[in-house]
Design goal:
This protein is an alpha+beta fold. 43% of the residues lie in helices and 12% in strands. The chain has three domains: 135 residues, no CATH class; 143 residues, Leucine-rich Repeat Variant; 94 residues.
Length: 407
């Protein structure tokens, strides 16, 4: 995974409590590497995530007052370097082909930030994990938007169902072929695609492909379907629907994206943000999300703004309490990573302050940002830094600068 893609690697996991006992990893299996970066739990399998892949682990919730606590399991479907949210249950299998790890929540409560301790290869890591249970707490009721009612012949309905079932196939080539066929079927495919999209037991990438297929059909029925899905009581369905908006025509989805940006679930807002920044003027809309209540959403917005080519927009990252000066380490780190990856020509004024920060991870990101901008006067501030992360960032960035100068 690229270091510059930290923001894409960090994502929220959503928890459901259960009563099963926590089990140790099966003998002979390698534990999943648990990277407790900043304020979100990110999972890497041997440093690389293949698409699609599922990572799972077990954990025990221990109340702040002590006691045995409640055991539960976490899982997330990983795709393209991200660990996507999934609706979880205590019945989820504890291991997959890559093994499992043990994580213990040692303080806090299920509604807020928790301190998490994890062990991997004999090393103990302690960081914060932000937990959000709102998706599980929402009652399962009929969405307020009426689901489109489309009548088709029995023969055509069977053809559509066969194509829709192919979206569950583990082979990417089969799912892609089914998606193309469903787009070709047009409005007739909408009911079956809605069934897939609202299937809470379906993997995230299956629901997301159904959402993208609906977006590509581009007619009134498909637009009504996406509007229906964005009002679904299950947050995972709304998340998939928002992700699928990328495939729709720009003018047609603007209202839907705006609605999704105001969703109660942070994952849905983050997914909508990814769509918004692809639309004309969308990066300026991301500025409001620098003040979002959720640190992950603010971090995602900071990354997008920092990575954009609009220098005047980037100035917002240096405002008090925003971006580079956010209370969250994750947000500050995201902004610095974005600035480093964007290849900007002049360092942001906040980079100098970040180079003197007490967190080595923040200093390392700032060093990378300064080095990519060829700002030797800033690099002098960390030339004697003993933190291995800073030294590694300087070495990698120096090699990059030399390659650029010799090109």
């Amino acid at each position: 995974m690229r270091l510059g893609g930290l923001v894409l690697a960090a994502a929220a996991l959503f928890i459901t409590a259960g009563a099963d006992a926590v089990e140790a990893p099966p003998a002979g299996q390698t534990p999943v590497l648990v990277s407790l970066e900043c304020e979100r739990l990110s999972l890497l399998i041997g440093g690389t995530l293949e698409y699609p892949s599922t990572v799972e682990l077990t954990a025990r919730l221990v109340p702040a007052t002590g006691g045995q606590g409640i055991a539960f399991s976490l899982s997330g479907e990983a795709a393209h370097g991200r660990v996507y949210p999934a609706l979880l249950s205590s019945e989820t299998a504890l291991t997959d082909a890559s093994g499992c790890a043990r994580v213990h929540v040692v303080s806090g409560d299920v509604e807020g930030a928790l301190s998490v301790a994890a062990e991997h290869s004999g090393q103990r890591l302690v960081r914060k994990l932000t937990v959000d249970t709102r998706w599980q707490e929402e009652p399962v009721i009929a969405p307020p938007v009426l689901r489109p009612d489309i009548s088709i012949s029995a023969e055509r309905a069977e053809l559509v169902r066969r194509r829709a079932r192919a979206l569950y196939d583990p082979r990417v080539s089969v799912r892609t072929e089914a998606k193309q066929a469903l787009v070709g079927l047009g409005q007739a495919a909408v009911p079956a695609l809605l069934d897939v999209l609202s299937d809470a037991s379906a993997p995230w990438d299956v629901r997301s492909m159904a959402s993208r297929t609906l977006a590509e059909i581009q007619d009134d029925a498909s637009r009504m379907s996406l509007a229906w899905a964005l009002k679904h009581p299950l947050g995972a369905v709304r998340y998939s629907a928002a992700a699928g908006l990328k495939g729709a025509a720009e003018a047609r989805i603007l209202t839907l994206v705006e609605d999704a940006l105001g969703d109660a679930a942070p994952g849905v807002r983050s997914s909508a943000l990814e769509v918004m920044v692809t639309l004309p003027g969308g990066i300026r809309r991301a500025l409001t999300l620098l003040k979002d209540a959720d640190a992950f959403v603010r971090g995602r917005a900071a990354w997008e703004i920092a990575f954009s080519g609009e220098e005047d927009v980037k100035t917002a990252l240096g405002e008090p309490g925003s971006g580079l000066f956010d209370d969250s380490v994750f947000v500050r780190h995201s902004a610095l990573r974005g600035l480093a990856a964007s290849g900007y020509e002049r360092p942001h004024p906040g980079v100098a302050a970040a180079l003197a920060h007490g967190d080595g991870a923040v200093r390392a990101a700032a060093a990378a940002a300064a080095a990519h901008a060829w700002e030797e006067r800033f690099l002098q501030l960390v030339s004697g830094d003993t933190d291995v992360r800073v030294r590694r960032a300087l070495a990698a960035s120096a090699a990059y600068v030399l390659r650029q100068k010799s090109a």
